[in-house]
Amino acid sequence: MEEKPFDASLGSPGSKISSPDTEVRNLWTEATLSQSKLNVPNACEDTDLEGSSVSSKTPHQRYNGKAGHDLNSGSLAWDDGDDQDNFKQEELDDHDHSLLELELRQGSSQGSHLEERDVDSKTESEISSSESLLNISNYAAHEAYWVEQQNRLPLPLMELMENEVLEILTEALQSYRSAIGWDHFLTKQLRESVKGLKRRQSKRLHL
Amino acid sequence: MKLKEGSFLWYLYLDKLYCLLSVRNVKVLVEYFHLLDVHHNNTLNDVLFYHFLRHVTKWNRSQITIVFNMLDWKAVGEIGFDQFYMLVCILLAQQNHLEEQFIFRHSRPVFELLDLEGQLRIGPENFHMYNFLFNIRNQELRELYHDFDITGDRYLNYKEFKLFTIFTWDKYQERQKAKKEKEEEKRKENEEKALFKKKRLSQINVSLSLI
Prior knowledge:
Largest interface: A-B, 50 and 46 residues
Number of strands of chain A: 0
Largest sheet of chain B: 2 strands, antiparallel
Number of helices of chain B: 10
Order of helices and strands of chain B: HEHHEHHHHHHH
Strand content of chain A: under 5%
Structural class of chain B: mainly alpha
Helix content of chain B: 55-70%
Oligomer: heterodimer
Largest sheet of chain A: none
């Protein structure tokens, strides 16, 4: 057979999968950094930068981190990439929309305060700027939170998957032991995986 | 073939039009695959593959070996995620009785899977070998070779196979339509019977009240 029927690929065998955790951690770092900024115009810029970095990261973050794991193009080859394009576009649209909302809210809150009271305009603007700063920092923290949540699979599903895989691997371990022996490095690797899954299972049961 | 109820795959579903998994389902399947990939090669060897299929299906050893050899199209002795995805789609198509639609939608990949030797044609022995996967009945197989072997060489090339999938898909749709119409007729009949019974009862009640 010359052509591969399906073009989904996780990259070459042996290549490592980068964790989306590091990228989510970066988001959290940016969120906490934005809280320390006091200047409103600068904070606005930071939000834009964060937004653009999040929007550029999120589609990749969803399935893989680095090149070599092009699951997006591969698994959706049969869909002609429609789902992924729509998904990416929706993500960017949602993000842009929320950023726009924030800026409008900020602008309108500032605008309404200045129009109503001319005498206390300075203190009003100070209050609104601190409010908007809080909003920005909250928004940034929430953004990171939601991105993290969206990357995780539901816990019951993870539990189901891990329990099933544990049963499969326990049976496979018997086959490994009888075929290649207990001391073979492949058997050791499998044994470690089984131990790890059992540990996670017992943690869940004891919680 | 039925997937084990309550197993992880049992919860997945195919898009009924394109017979593919949704993006969300693929994401979940990737995680599942990585849990099975204990050697961190992005592949499953034959032992892991065998135990996986033993756990989720009722296939015997020889059937699982046939499936493994079919999917190991690079002949490396391991199954990557592409092949794993393909297998899951086939399993789910069987589970949900979407075999005809699956073969129609993905005729090229299915043809290439059946063409084990890469001859760009498939013979009746290929179909027999994979009968348990695609559920092609013997009667259909005879019709297949009788009606679609245009070249007359007792093998089907891709074009002939494609014609077969289109024909099978049309037949399947007609069967579904006929089934729906029958169900609709039965429902109407039952409704009419129920209505007639009601009328009779009311008539009896009226006559009893007159007495």
